[in-house]
Amino acid sequence: EAGELGLAAVPGREAAFRQGLAEAVQYARAVGCHRIHVMAGRVPLGADRAAVAGEMETTFIENLRYAADLLAQENMIGLVEPINNRITDPRYYLNTPHQAAAILEKVGQPNLKLQLDLFHCQIMDGNLSRNLDTYFPLIGHIQIAQVPGRHEPDSPGELNFPYIFELLESLGYTGYVGCEYAPKGDTLEGLGWLRSYWESRGLQHGGNSKAAK
């Protein structure tokens, strides 16, 4: 409600973070969700990012270790997502896959993974093929949106999603791909890109192979 985008990396807010995490676990348990996005939060208003970076990283690591222990008891996975600070939110703390991977390595818990949103990744770093290959062992969830408009994958933009989807298949990705975009019109009509992709791959709607039928 305060527009904080999480608290996990915000110094002095540890108690609020733990309370929020406990509530999130209750909701996730109720709906059968096994993955929770542990949002880092924003650089405090008026603070210099470089000046507070070390303290925020320490706070983030400590809170992620706490989260990993709690989530392990529930057989859940925690996800951290880099969000670009060039367009979406200039104050968000976690901005690149490289930064996220370094923090996950320091935390060292197997039930914490990378939530890689290709919209944010393209804006911050590009080089998606290499980044997907490099960070694939850490990836726990993928999200997509066209760049720069953040609409459907087949809307005009920079990313070749049929290529990206086939790359994910070749890497062995079997998880969900979250459609985190703003539909240009009707949501169901906007899913025409998915039906077209299935047909191009010889699949029926729903992802079932025609050959298997």
From TrEMBL:
Print the keywords alphabetically. Isomerase
Q: Gene3D superfamilies, from UniProt?
A: Divalent-metal-dependent TIM barrel enzymes
Which InterPro entries does the record match to this protein? Answer: Sugar_Epim/Isomerase, Xyl_isomerase-like_sf, Xyl_isomerase-like_TIM-brl
Where along the sequence do coiled-coil regions lie? Answer: none
Q: Biological process GO annotation list?
A: glyoxylate metabolic process
Regions crossing the membrane? none
Q: Is the keyword Isomerase in the record?
A: yes
Which Pfam family, any one of them, does this sequence belong to?
AP_endonuc_2
- Tell me if GTP-binding is a UniProt keyword of this record: no
> Domain Xylose isomerase-like TIM barrel: where?
6-196
Q: Name one GO molecular function term.
A: hydroxypyruvate isomerase activity
PANTHER family listed in its UniProt record: HYDROXYPYRUVATE ISOMERASE-RELATED (PTHR43489:SF6), ISOMERASE (PTHR43489)
Name-wise, this protein is HYI isomerase
Q: Which organism is it from?
A: Pachyramphus minor
